[in-house]
Amino acid sequence: MTRRENIAPASTWSIEGNRRALGELASRENFPVATRLLPARHRADLRAVYGFARLVDDIGDEAPQEERAGLLDLVDGDLDRIYGTGTPRLPQLRRLAATVAARSIPETPFRRLVQANRQDQEVHRYGTFGELLEYCTLSADPVGRIVLHVFGAAKPGLLESSDRVCTALQIIEHCQDVGEDHRRGRIYLPADDLRRFDCTEDDLARPVTPTRLRGVLALEAGRARELLDRGAEPLISGLSGWARLAVAGYVAGGRAALAALARGRYDVLAHPPRPHRARLLAGWARALGRG
């Protein structure tokens, strides 16, 4: 599930417009094939979770800069209502409330996603890979934990593996979106890795990815692959039924994205690589078979 995709120019951004756009976005590449095969009850819950995550991310990326803190306050206020008493005001949060109640999803993962977007407003660079991993505990890992709760599979032994998979998927996306992130004023590639390959910030704005930057991307992709390998097998092996099917789809998407990066020789600036559907389906089948 990709985090950032423009759904409206900042000057016309609105919560209502975000709500209308979610249906179209969720019907395209954002939901993997595996998710579309799920029973209606699971699809509805995952779409509610997706709607929340999209709303929070789009506030942090698309809303006018001066309005973002206040809009995130609205989201936090509605979370107060969901986990206290009261009816959420935002349509995405009203939809989420039913899923939270039905699946007994705890509050912390949702709060962390909001916190990640607050951090995005203040922190625009990461010095080390360790700092980036800490950010992923807010921006990525909560999504996997929420998904496990949706399927009633949030067992302590699976949460750590889920965190590794989600962190890997986030790092892969940072590699894919280097140019877009830079245009937003953010750099998620660790500064010490950029220095190691003699990269400057100007390299992130070039029309074609220079060789030295491709080296950084290959390094980060390799780290993501290692995390994905460490997390995927125990996670998928520990799941069954629809949960296993869905999570295998997310893992397959990550592997297909890594293959696309390598196939494109890490030239993410000239031609941002995206996985082929056939590779994704083949990877999904392999993920299921390995579990």
Structure description:
With 291 residues, the chain is an all-alpha fold. It has two domains: 8-121, Farnesyl Diphosphate Synthase (Orthogonal Bundle); 123-291, Farnesyl Diphosphate Synthase (Orthogonal Bundle). 69% of the residues lie in helices and 0% in strands. It is built from 14 helices and no strands. It has helices at 15-26, 33-36, 40-62, 68-82, 91-103, 108-122, 129-139, 141-150, 156-176, 178-183, 191-196, 211-237, 241-263, 277-290. The longest helix has 27 residues, at 211-237. The two termini are 21 Å apart.
Q: Please work out how many helical segments DSSP would assign.
A: 14
Helix fraction by DSSP (H/I, runs of at least 4): 55-70%
The CATH topology of the largest domain? Farnesyl Diphosphate Synthase
Instruction: Write the CATH architecture name of the largest domain.
Output: Orthogonal Bundle
CATH level 1 class label of the largest domain: Mainly Alpha
Task: Give the overall silhouette.
Answer: globular
Strand element count:
0
Stretches where pLDDT is under 50 for at least 5 consecutive residues are: 1-12, 20-31
Number of domains: 2
Topology of helices and strands:
Elements: H1 15-26, H2 33-36, H3 40-62, H4 68-82, H5 91-103, H6 108-122, H7 129-139, H8 141-150, H9 156-176, H10 178-183, H11 191-196, H12 211-237, H13 241-263, H14 277-290
Helix pairs in contact: 1-3, 3-5, 3-6, 3-8, 4-5, 4-6, 6-7, 6-8, 7-9, 8-9, 9-12, 9-13, 12-13, 13-14
Task: Jot down its keywords.
291 residues; Farnesyl Diphosphate Synthase; 2 domains; disordered N terminus
Write a brief structural summary.
The chain is mostly helical. It is 69% helix and 0% strand.
